[in-house]
TrEMBL record:
Superkingdom to which the source organism belongs: Bacteria
One family name in Pfam for this protein: Usp
Species per Swiss-Prot/TrEMBL record: Schinkia azotoformans LMG 9581
Domain UspA: 5-146
Name this polypeptide is given: Phosphate starvation protein
Family, similarity comment: Belongs to the universal stress protein A family.
Gene3D superfamilies: HUPs
Length: 146
C-alpha cells in the first residue's frame, strides 16, 4: 500500500477509540520506516476562569491530571517502541483541540489520526467537540477512527 504521509500525529487519551486510532496509525507507519509517528496526550486541568469567578485553584488536582496524562503515555511509549520508525510521545497542557492542531502545525505533520466520540442514537451523527475542532481547524487531513 502506498502512503503519502511522512509525519503522523495521534491524539491519545486512553479511551477505546484512541487506542483504535493508535493501532491504525501504527499500521500506517509500518508501511515505511521513514514515517514518523508522534502520540500526543493533552492534560486539560480546570483553571480559575473555567470554574467561575469563585473557583478554587487546586495545584494538587492539576498535578494529578498531568501525572495521569504522563502515565497514559508511558504505556504508549512501550507500544510504539516496537516500531522501527522514529517515534515520540508528548504531553501538552491546555485546550486539547487547539494544542493538537498547533502541535501538528509546529511539527509539520501531514496526517492527524484520532478517535470520534462513541455515542448512541441521534448523537452518532456528531463528532466530539475536540474531534470536530481538529477537523475544522487542521491544515492537514484528519483520519477519524470510530
Amino acid at each position: 500500500m502506498l502512503t503519502f504521509y511522512s509525519r503522523i500525529l495521534v491524539a491519545y487519551d486512553g479511551s477505546d477509540l484512541s487506542k483504535k486510532a493508535l493501532d491504525m496509525a501504527m499500521a500506517l507507519a509500518k508501511q515505511d520506516e521513514r514515517i514518523e509517528l508522534t502520540v500526543v496526550a493533552v492534560s486539560n486541568p480546570p483553571t480559575a476562569t473555567s470554574m467561575g469567578s469563585y473557583g478554587i485553584y487546586n495545584q494538587e488536582l492539576i498535578n494529578e491530571i498531568r501525572e495521569n496524562a504522563e502515565k497514559i503515555l508511558s504505556e504508549v511509549k512501550e507500544k510504539i517502541a516496537e516500531l522501527p520508525n522514529k517515534t515520540a510521545a508528548v504531553v501538552l497542557e491546555g485546550n486539547p483541540g487547539r494544542l493538537i492542531v498547533d502541535h501538528a502545525n509546529q511539527t509539520s505533520c501531514d496526517l492527524i489520526v484520532m478517535g470520534s466520540r462513541g455515542l448512541s442514537g441521534i448523537k452518532e451523527m456528531f463528532l466530539g467537540s475536540t474531534s470536530h475542532f481538529v477537523v475544522q481547524k487542521a491544515n492537514c487531513p484528519v483520519f477519524i477512527v470510530k
